[in-house]
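Deviation from plan, reported transparently: S-adenosylmethionine complex.
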Amino acid sequence: MASPLSSLGTRVAYGATQLPRIAWYVGHNAVMRRLSEAARRSEDGGARPRPHTDAAVPDRNRLYADMANLFRQDLANVESGIYPLPADHDGSLPMLLNRSRLFFADLPEIHRRRESGENRQVLSGETLGKRPGYYLQNFHFQSGGWMTRDSARRYDTQVEVLLHGTANATRRQALPPLHEVFAGRDQRRLRLLDVGCGTGRALDCIKQAWPRLPSLGIDMSEAYVAEAKRHLRRWGWIDLMVANAEAVPLENESQDAVTASFLFHELPPKVRRIVFRELARVLKRGGRLVVVDSLQIGDEPDYDGMLELFPQNYHEPYYVGYLKEDFGAIAGACGLKHIRDVKAFVSKVMVFDKL
Ligand SMILES: C[S@@+](CC[C@H](N)C(=O)[O-])C[C@H]1O[C@@H](n2cnc3c(N)ncnc32)[C@H](O)[C@@H]1O
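Because the crystal trials were delayed, the predicted structure below was used instead.
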């Protein structure tokens, strides 16, 4: 058992890394909102109707209380030995500042697209036919969609700002269900696949807990995979590959665990089902799938209005469908058993086992 002193040390170290990080991203969020409001006012309200919902929207106190619960859970996981004190690997101060500059530089373009509804700028002679149509969009109204190096370098700041600095802590909530199936086993003999790995932040969290776990990350974006390779170069036993989750380039029943964070709300309903089938196919019997993604309608009724507002502010073409998707049924249709959901602030962790 940890001594009271070492536990105090862990808490101090956790606070010393997480609190400035939260302040950084919450601060970015506040500035972003002010800029966006000012831009709207200067355009006399803009052409677009104001986002609207009749459902409940949590107030600031409720949001901060739930954020605090997420960080308390994160710390509890550290204290119970599920993973070590987390390192977010955000980079040096010059790198952080450069990412901040890239983030703010894209806001006017995002605002312009939001007001005009333009979301297909990614579609060009160069990209057409190289990726499925659903993929070639300016998700979140961001410049470059998933397709450019600058988009890949901006992405993590955008997500952390949107989630008030909780994105990595949320991704780490996939680790306790992995710990349940990995505990007591030789990590070098296990296999893990992370699907839609993006810039590799979820894999970074996983490798901190199991540095010698052979892991593969796949993503359909060359630029994001390149960024993931850069970000994850400190780790061995890891592969990254450009691939479509609809056709995972792995043998049947070859993986002990599969993870996917913030992927499923970006996929059309038909594709969600195809990808689920693929993940079930590559999992070994007894293997575990852990999905981290947004809350859905009814998970936390006080949040329903906020979930409804999100796709009115950001280009999220499949999010409304996602909010009511029955993942238990999708999983059941491909031989996966829904074990449980665990809420994590505005997200949740869905756990499935292959029977
Ligand atoms: C919202 S990002 C999530 C990235 C990362 N998992 C995270 O935790 O931030 C969605 C990612 O899914 C990828 N993606 C979308 N559709 C895909 C598909 N069919 N196959 C593989 N990757 C896909 C995108 O390129 C993007 O990197």
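The pocket of S-adenosylmethionine is lined by residues 135, 146, 159, 171, 196-198, 201-202, 219-221, 224, 244-246, 261-263, 266-267 (CB under 6 Å). We consider this an acceptable substitute for the interim report.
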